[in-house]
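Human: I'm a chemist; would you kindly supply sequence and structure tokens for a protein?

Assistant:
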Amino acid sequence: MSDQLTGTDRAKALALLQETGWSEVEGRDAIARTFEFADFVEAFGFMTRVAIVAEKMNHHPEWENVYKTVRVVLTSHDIGGLSQRDLRLATRMEQLAA
């Protein structure tokens, strides 16, 4: 289990994530980002790579895919909010999308 991010730690983490396109979800303690790829195959490949990482972390994103776009929401349901696991998965997603 991971602790919920609060205070200064949360503010610093969100500031860094916003630089890469992540934003807070209104009305939820969560972050979201939309990834866009060249085509469906690239989008699906990204989702497959993330699925392998997420499964190893036992931390699964909320996401949807329409053609070349993948919208992701991250939150830690077991603690009811944003945690270090979300930050780690968001960072890994950025690496996998590059």
Summary: The chain has a mean pLDDT of 93. The beta strands are 23-24, 31-36, 62-66, 69-74.
